[in-house]
């Protein structure tokens, strides 16, 4: 599955990025504990001790909230940069099949992300034992959740890299896919409310039922996990990004194995995606700009004018992004 020769090649090619990712992911969790402890000591030095609390609360933003970023960088280096620099053709010419190439790239980055954070979790756990804070909230759930979410982000970027022909396309595709479930639901609902003059939440038995459904649906949006709101809800929510990781992995693996590589520089390597994605972008442009035009003047004319602008913008953005080959 993973070839030694390819593994060594990936290590030498991306050694600096891999090492920096490991250092950051190992230290992020324990440094968050140290920062909390130093803040507590600073409070003791300047205020009455009764006003100082040493509480470790992972619900409050800390350094591990951006642990997904190394996964994004690694995926870009493993696939997007290879496409943009035309070195992917050289790798494909080596005596390895596509499955071996993808599996080696994928699992090298995946193990860096997971094992580094597991080591950081152990170091943070030891620091908690040493410092002995008054209360610790969401430590295990937060640490494990960040590992799952950062791995999901890595899988998403690897899938996007397997579908696209350059770094810009990889990042844009990944971002669009991360927000796609929200756009598919929110934009049609918003336009439905404008056209028919109703509020969706009024159709529910109670406002609480509407907001509960909206909150639950938000966990189907990958980009929503960037914020740590999931911490205060059920731990079983993490099964959703875990399932998404598997889905993104399968998409990336099948795409890399089956799709051609001759369209380097194009947005998508598989030209059959060009037209459907262009139609989707134009649709989002029409619906999105229509809502913006309506909110600006609260008039149907503003709504129609916004839709026209959205159609034009969507067409040109999709055309120049998808159909214009990036120069190498």
UniProtKB/TrEMBL annotation:
Signal peptide, first to last residue: none
Regions that span the bilayer: 16-40, 60-81, 106-131, 143-163, 175-201, 236-256, 277-294, 300-322
One Pfam family per UniProt: ABC2_membrane_2
Keyword Membrane included in the entry's annotation: yes
UniProt keywords, alphabetically: Membrane, Transmembrane, Transmembrane helix
Ranges in a coiled coil: none
Protein's name according to its UniProt entry: ABC transporter permease YtrC
Organism: Bacillus vallismortis
Gene (name only): ytrC
